[in-house]
Amino acid sequence: MTPPQRKRRPPGQEPLQQPTEAGGETGTTKKNPERLYVITGTADGGRAEMDLVTLIVARADPPPSVPPEQAALLRLCASPLSVAELSAYLNLPFSAMTVLITEMITAELVQARAPIVRQALPDRSLLEAVMHGLQKL
Q: In whole angstroms, what is the distance from residue 29 CA to residue 36 CA?
């Protein structure tokens, strides 16, 4: 599944008017707090420790019983994506994403892992020296 693409508008052009979720009036669409509560549920347990750069990877295909937001998250996470990217693709705030991802971690549908830090990787010259040393044996 490819992430949604945004179209640029020329400078000076007014943004498109969209109907709001609550009524039929035009204006910018905003997330309804009641809708976020329905998506995240009661959130009885604690939240998993994660930040914006935590990588989320799907462990399984979406079962038929999962809500649509979780199914969309599982389809997007076929390859590792950060919580910030998932939040942008699903148009949900970070707080709602952490609750949603915590539920999915508990259900063992996704796996969260820290990003690979560039400084934690060994130096290439050191690896080449080890490789040449092993080849001489």
A: 14
Q: pLDDT category, 136, cuts 50, 70, 90? A: very high
Output DSSP code: residue 120: G
Per-residue pLDDT, 14? 64
29 and 88 in contact (C-beta within 8 Å)? no
Q: Quick one: pLDDT band at residue 24, thresholds 50, 70, 90?
A: very low
3-state class (DSSP) for residue 129: helix
Task: Note whether 48 and 112 are within 8 A (CB).
Answer: yes
State the DSSP string of 47-109: PP---TT-EEEE-SPPPTTS-HHHHHHHHHTTS-EEHHHHHHHHT--HHHHHHHHHHHHHTTS
pLDDT tens column, 60-69: 887 888 888 8
Q: Let me know: does 112 contact 54? Beta carbons within 8 Å.
A: yes
| Per-residue pLDDT, 17 | 53
